[in-house]
Amino acid sequence: MIRGGTLRPGDQLPSVRSLCHTRRVSPSTVLRAYEILEFDRLIEARARSGYYVREPRKPAPEPAASTPKSSSTRVAVSDLVFDTLDAVRDRDVVPLGSAFPSPLLFPWAKLARFLGSSARHMDPWSTVDSLPPGSIELRRQIARRYLRLGMTVGIEEIIVTSGALEALNLALQTVTRPGDTIAIESPTFYGCLQAAERLGLNVVEIPTHPQEGVDLDALTRAIAKYSVRACWFMTTLHHPTGAIMPAEKKRELVSLLASREVALIEDDAYAELQFSSSPSPPAKSFDKRGMVLHCGSFSKCLAPGYRLGWVAAGRFTRDLARRKIESSLATSLPIQQGIAAMLRRGSYDAHLARLREQLASQQSAALDSVRRHFPPGYRVARPAGGYFLWIECAAAVDSLDVHRRALVLGISIAPGPIFSARRQFGNFLRINCGHPWTPAMDRAVQQLGEILRRY
Ligand SMILES: Cc1ncc(COP(=O)(O)O)c(C=O)c1O
Asked: What is the pLDDT at residue 44?
């Protein structure tokens, strides 16, 4: 009600006693709820008077749309990516540079129960029946989730993979040949750059807006100039900016690519982490010609480390299933069956609701830390989901240098250049807010702020 404007700054909230009465909860529950809202800086306690809605803060400006060079290039960033991301594995380092949410946000005990029971009841013949495209039951559950978005994706189109990353790599191999050019966002997920590098592809980086995603006019020009073979785009909760392309723009994108016979590899690893109660559907929902290869994952929303993902590959399904067999034969069957059982009976939606709420609250706290500690002049968008903040610092900042200095203090960050084929975004940082926002995290942001002031 505060965010929607029903409760306005200065309005008094119901007293603890009246909430206990109307909600039939204990005083400690109400106090805990008010504590969370205070932590998110939405309300404040006034001595001997009660709780009030706080004055909203003026949000920091957003970064502008990116302006990459409009030429095609070879990629060579893998060493830089490995060097900078290695640091994140150390548990004693404050994980602001981590690509993962806190592992403590996931239902491990429940997953273990489903995994154990499905392994105990596994039909030995299913190891043969479930070779690619994968477990029928899991594919049925995935198809049912598409159906909830109003999409009819048949189970015969779904191929189970080891995480979204395998799905994306197989998709890229299926629709390109070495030397081809693909269009990517700028900035983009470094996994996309590494895949292009490994397959010997050229990339053309398309200007990307931090709220609305890729610039379709620039894409149209690039397709005409470079005979682009495929696009690899994160249309929902783009990594690292958090942009969600509006549905109408997704529709235009699909129709533009279909008219040019360009395949769309849709990297949708974060789709389930949208905070909105009416999530944006994938571009795949507008695909009439089977040109979209939609890649999903359970790594970010349910079971990190289980390495389970999928691709709904449209007209490329048969070809991609063969490549899956050639590259890794199949994905672990007990894992597929355990997750299928969890989706069927394990209150997945209740877990997702809790996870999204937790991530939204952590995001507010992280934005607040940044606001208090970073030197003025930075820009940041407030993504409508996920757990990253993409921050543009003053032009003089060198984020690779910030990364080195922060590591000495036991803090990691992800520096901007790992998100670009040409190592642009030298003054950008990606900060992870997927961990419970503790005083230690706030202190780490303060120390980062001190580093940034030196430039
Ligand atoms: C945008 C994006 N796509 C794909 C992946 C890989 O997902 P998975 O862990 O399911 O392989 C990641 C992981 O960081 C990601 O950020």
From this structure: 87
pTM: 0.88
Which segments of the chain have a pLDDT < 50? Answer: none
Kindly give the distance from the C-alpha atom of residue 299 to the centroid of ligand 1, in angstroms, as a whole number. 7
Q: Which pLDDT does position 37 carry in this prediction?
A: 86
Ligand 1 centroid from CA 165, angstroms? 6
Pocket test for ligand 1, best of 170, 189, 328, 335 (most atoms within 8 A of CB): 189
Ligand 1: residues with CB < 6 A are 99, 163-165, 189, 191, 234, 239, 267, 269, 297, 299, 309
Q: State the SS3 of the chain.
A: CCCCCCCCCCCECCCHHHHHHHHCCCHHHHHHHHHHHHHCCCEEEECCCEEEECCCCCCCCCCCCCCCCCCEECCCCHHHHHHHHHHHHCCCCECCCCCCCCHHHCCHHHHHHHHHHHHHCCCCCHHHHCCCCCCHHHHHHHHHHHHHCCCCCCHHHEEEECHHHHHHHHHHHHHCCCCCEEEEEECCCHHHHHHHHHCCCEEEEEEEECCCEECHHHHHHHHHHHCCCEEEECCCCCCCCCCCCCHHHHHHHHHHHHHCCCEEEEECCCHHHECCCCCCCCHHHHCCCCCEEEEEECCCCCCCCCCCEEEECHHHHHHHHHHHHHHHCCCCHHHHHHHHHHHHHCCHHHHHHHHHHHHHHHHHHHHHHHHHHCCCCCEECCCCECCEEEEECCCCCCHHHHHHHHHHCCECCEEHHHHCCCCCCCCEEEEECCCCCCHHHHHHHHHHHHHHHCC
